[in-house]
């Protein structure tokens, strides 16, 4: 149908669009929105599959953080630093991570923009798992870009390895001294040796325990909970450093996604589908645009904002807020500046209407068949 053609064109365009980017998905009728977004998601999955097949033949070389791949990912997180090579930047295979954000669900809270950030953090944690993200918080490092024509994607973190082996060596020496002071005859009376052995073992062991506790803390307390605590706290709400803390959590997510790109050997695109924005109050709408600007400020962020709205509804909301200063109260001008790639879906064509009617009739027939079959079974 016509809708399939438009949605497939958009999904293919997303494969070639540089990130971060804001796509204006302008649909005149809200009741078609769910089906249109489903078509975009399905078409993007098909393009991603074919690109994986083109890159690796059968997609078997793509690393995934599950099973044995999870152990490999944790090992690389702890002891290796990812390197973004020229070959990686030229990869054509993509994975789209679609995240649905319904602004109407968060319209009642004071900080609607915080709902957008927490939704992003929650779905990224669910998609890749809590353990890799928690380890990255403590041991992970920001990916670096390769110099020259080097194709080496992993560099050993010598400093981390030296510190770890040093702690283990000191711990072993402390335990050995303590055992000698406790078990060897003639030395048991030397209390000073026992004190030295126990102090060395406890200090080195405490460093390892603190690292493990930090990983456990990030495993139990998600990024979503951290941001929710910040927004609920009056102590941070009035400080300038509040947004920097939220920005720090987003930066960690961006670096983690860059690590997973190198590990999985494909490019990642996080598509945030923002819906129901035209049902919120004007000041809430402006807050979401401000949150989008915050997330888009990182040039390396793999974010695609799919702003599914009706411009005829959203523009009057923008013109009623104070964000229009300097734009002569022109809501369309503000929307054009906020949206990088406008994509308009026309009204439903004849073929699309016919397909919708056929689907509705078939659904009704299936429902009637189930009711009749259920009545027959009861009798």
Automatic annotation (TrEMBL):
Source organism: Cisticola juncidis
Keyword flag Transmembrane helix: yes
Domain KAP NTPase: 91-351
Transmembrane segments: 66-84, 164-184, 196-216
Keyword Transmembrane: yes
The protein's name: NKPD1 protein
Keywords: Membrane, Transmembrane, Transmembrane helix
InterPro entries named in the record: KAP_P-loop, NTPase_KAP_P-loop
């Amino acid at each position: 149908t016509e809708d399939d053609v438009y949605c497939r064109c958009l999904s293919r365009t997303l494969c070639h669009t540089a990130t971060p980017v804001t796509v204006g998905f302008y649909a005149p009728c809200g009741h078609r929105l769910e089906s249109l977004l489903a078509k975009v998601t399905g078409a993007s999955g098909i393009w991603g599959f074919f690109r994986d097949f083109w890159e690796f033949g059968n997609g078997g070389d793509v690393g995934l953080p599950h099973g044995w791949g999870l152990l490999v990912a944790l090992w690389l997180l702890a002891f290796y630093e990812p390197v973004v090579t020229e070959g990686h930047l030229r990869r054509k295979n993509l994975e789209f991570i679609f995240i649905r954000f319904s602004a109407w669900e968060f319209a009642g809270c004071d900080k609607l923009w915080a709902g957008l950030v927490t939704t992003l953090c929650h779905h990224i944690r669910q998609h890749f798992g809590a353990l890799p993200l928690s380890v990255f918080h403590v041991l992970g490092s920001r990916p670096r870009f390769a110099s020259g024509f080097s194709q080496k994607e992993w560099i050993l973190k010598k400093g981390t390895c030296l510190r770890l082996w040093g702690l283990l060596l000191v711990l072993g020496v402390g335990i050995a001294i303590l055992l000698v002071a406790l078990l060897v005859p003639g030395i048991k009376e030397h209390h000073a040796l026992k004190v030295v052995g126990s102090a060395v073992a406890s200090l080195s062991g405490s460093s390892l325990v603190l690292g493990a506790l930090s990983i456990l803390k990030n495993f139990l307390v998600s990024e979503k909970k951290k941001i929710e605590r910040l927004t609920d706290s009056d102590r941070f709400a009035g400080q300038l450093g509040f947004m920097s803390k939220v920005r720090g959590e987003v930066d960690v997510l961006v670096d983690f996604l860059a690590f997973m790109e190198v590990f999985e050997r494909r490019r990642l695109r996080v598509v945030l589908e923002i819906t129901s924005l035209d049902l919120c109050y004007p000041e809430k709408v402006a807050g979401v645009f401000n949150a989008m600007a915050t997330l888009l400020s990182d040039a390396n962020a793999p974010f695609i904002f799919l702003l599914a709205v009706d411009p005829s509804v959203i523009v009057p909301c923008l013109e009623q807020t104070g964000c229009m200063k300097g734009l002569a109260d022109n809501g369309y001008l503000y929307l054009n500046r906020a949206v990088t790639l406008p994509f308009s879906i026309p009204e439903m064509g004849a073929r699309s209407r016919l397909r919708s009617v056929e689907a509705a009739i078939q659904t009704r027939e299936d429902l009637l068949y189930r009711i009749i079959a259920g009545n027959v079974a009861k009798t």
